[in-house]
Amino acid sequence: MPLILGTNSIKDTGYDVANSLRFNSGSSDYLNRTPSSAGNRKTFTISLWFKLSQISTSNINLINSGSYPPYQNDLNTELQIRDHRIKLVGGASNIIESGAFIRDPSAWYHLVIAVDTTQGTSSNRIKMYINGVIQTSLNLANYPSQNDNYAFNNNVEHRIGRSAGSGSNYFHGYMAEYVMIDGQQLDPTSFGEFDEDSGIWKPIDVSGLTFGTNGFYLDFEDSSALGNDANGSNNFTVNNLTAIDQSTDTCTNNFATWNPLENYYQSNTYSEGNLQVQTQNTSFTYNFATIGVSTGKWYWEVEYDAKSGGTDQPMIGITSTQPTSNDHELGNFPNDFAWYTDNGTGYLANNNTYSNVGFNAYTVGDVISVALDLDNNKLYFAKNGTWEKSGNPESGSTGTGAISITASASTPLGVYFPSVGDAINSQNATFKTNFGSPPYAISSGNTDGDGYGNFEYAVPSGYYSLNSKNLAEYG
Questions:
Q1: Which of 122, 182, 187, 250 is buried deepest, with most CB atoms within 10 A?
Q2: What is the pTM of this model?
């Protein structure tokens, strides 16, 4: 199955998706709509792009309609991810479940569910496509009876990102290009195509499709009306989502986030599309981003947001080493480099040594800028827009104010990852990270040289945000 804009990348995708919507399960985010009249309940197509932030065996809801519990003669519809598989649940016994696993938090996936219960052949009544490929090796294949009606497209409540009943099972991640076609069973070529050069599945413009009575197209481009139907007037009501949840992390430009699969020896908490991480007070270890780099110049920002306990020991930096126990904090290894604060003094943490190299301390509310120059093997830090040690990230091989780092080719992983951690196991620390699509309000609006990202402070010339388009050009 082709990869979908994860660490692989396409610079020129042809059709670019501007925005996604970032759902945070902890905030009970969802969209809902009740159609005024029924559409076609036998024939319809759902298409959406999504990027998971929560990798869980529990039910993650993509869309559902009808009441709970479901009843068989009027099939409740629930499209979900459960046990790492896509499931279309209709009624008590009608379940179609993918054989493929969905568990990569660094990649965008495309899903098409094409339904036509009038078909005489049962396997033609529901077709599931992931990344442009029809799913024939299904884990479950309990098809509906011929001419069954689904609750989907009925004049009942439809919810995106939340299940029926108790309202649990909120989606945690990103959705983009959300389409429903009322009255047609379409294949994925109506929504995407394979890139000629890379073979990667990518989106195409869907605005020319016929959407039908209750069809909709959610492009999430209007931050003041995130549930707006770009095709017509089948708008969704927004619940607990605000303009800050509009993201530029999309299926055509994939941005870095924190990687919950790199949660070694700890149980850190991730939120806001994996851009916020809270360390736990039972271990020292650190977190990786989903994108690592070996060449080029890169920029990101981290807001140290909160702590609990009396000692303040946050760590922000880079790593090229995986921890091997729960007492390996960031800076434990030769290829870890972190700006570390302890009791009002700033240090460089590297190779299990804490050196006073002239760094200031930082505290709750400060925004730390990181500029990583892998062309000259230099690392720079700034606090609230001022570069430490009078640093100049644009100084090239001179490295004014820089920390010299090991060339990536000589490191254990061959790449450096952005990383955050905590050097004390008796408190929690919270880091909010801006890799270019911030999870918090900022007062400025700075982009990199290619126009990507939305940063609080000016991006140094020649440095770029960590996303798939920039990786294709500079990585």
A1: 250
A2: 0.94
